[in-house]
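Reopening this one. Same input as before:
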Amino acid sequence: MGGEKKVYTLDEVYKHSDRKDCWLVIDGKVYDVTKFLEDHPGGDEVLLSSTGKDATDDFEDVGHSTAARAMMDEYYVGDIDKAFISAKSTEYTPPKQPQYNPDKTSDFIIRLLQFLVPLLILGLAFVVRSYTKSPTA
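Same output, byte for byte:
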């Protein structure tokens, strides 16, 4: 790169969002992962679904190894425009909240059912045993 860092806008990164030309933004840095699509352990669809946006949260949620983080240098092409980073933080935060609330509600219902269903089965077994028990004389 000749020592000078290239700065890209999100619009420029978005133009590189298909299998033949795939760029990602992670921690304010732009990566061309086109050559890595075939080798990505999670499959190419994971990377393709994160193109044209800041994929930092997606990357961090997976919990990549130190080796994976070191590999990123090989695909680095530049930085994202700092104006995008400050604007992005206000754009993306509110929409992410509703995605997690339904999951928490269904988690609560599943945990409640995991507790109640065995109790209901135990109660039903007790009732069946009481009615089918032969009287002892």
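So the earlier flakiness isn't reproducible anymore. For the record, Strands lie at 7-8, 17-18, 21-26, 29-32, 76-80.
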